Amino acid sequence: MSTDRNPGVPLDLSWFDRIAVNTPATEARAAQLTTRRSLKKNYQAAWLVNAIHCMDLTTLAGDDTEDRVARLCAKARAPLADHILAGLGLEGVTTGAVCVYPTMVAAAVRALEGTSIPVASVATGFPAGLMPLDLRLAEIRYAVDQGAQEIDIVITRAHVLRADWQALYDEIAAMREACGAAHMKAILATGDLKTLRNVYKASMVAMQAGADFIKTSTGKEGVNATLPVSLTMVRALRDYGARTGYRIGFKPAGGMKTAKDALAWQILMKEEMGTDWLRPDLFRLGASSMLADIERQLEHHVTGRYASSSRHAIA
User: Fold this and answer.
1) Active-site positions?
2) What is the pLDDT of residues 129-156, one digit of tens each?
3) pLDDT (0 to 100) of residue 309
4) How many CB atoms lie within 10 A of CB 259?
5) Which residue, among 211, 221, 219, 215, has the nearest Cα to 182 in the 3D structure?
6) Which candidate, 122, 154, 87, 91, places its Cα nearest to that of 304?
7) Among 62, 68, 213, 243, which is least packed by CB within 10 angstroms?
8) DSSP 244-310
9) Which residues pair with 211 in a beta bridge?
10) pTM score > 0.85 for this model?
């Protein structure tokens, strides 16, 4: 399968117009994922460290400041306390990226200078996306000009609900063009899409339009990342890869707060896609509070004791 960037393909409804998703079977398969594979001791610790490597450490709050972003970036550069790193025999552990609003991109770029950690920015009227298209495209260009290397765009959910696939395709293709060299993650806001069939179809249209990643949620919907939705999206990207030879990344986001969640979504990728999709170039976890629990679990692995959460810097 090609490691080149997905160029997209012309919209082709025949790839998905007759797709059927068996919801009970999808839910049953998702439920089995976390019971069929048991991760203990050193293996569990290794998977938790890998989750950190694949994490988009995120702040998307209305009261974000440059100082808060700088603190987040410091945590991204050193997500684990020194004694935990020493106990694990590791060094140089960082998160996969830092994700912020467009106006905070420049501050994040400054704070991450000298590292290889990319800055991701949400754009296109995040989280609702209900802005004129020209303004959403301008927001992408602004974020890229500020130094963002990855752009997390949001789609117009109404296009999916009306089955207006041409409008959805044209919108995402225009956003991909505006991203230029920056990689584009297409947020589908799956909690708003009503059915798993809609989730599959929206995933396929986003990839046909050139998305580098497909992402579950903004984190602001009533329902965010779930394993059944994620399984449906992963099956769509697997089908797209089989047809085109291009590898698409996957990013679940929203509602994931524990180390157990980090393991569950990695197991999904391992079982469905293989080990290649356990690397940050093809898999990201959109999270922030999850990191504190991962650090706590790794401290227990190293010391045999659970530390108070106040001992670990809040991401």
Assistant:
1) 152, 215, 251
2) 999 999 999 999 999 999 999 999 999 9
3) 64
4) 21
5) 211
6) 87
7) 62
8) H-B--EEE-BSS--SHHHHHHHHHHHHHHH-GGGGSTTTB-EEESHHHHHHHHHHHHHHHSSPPPGG
9) none
10) yes
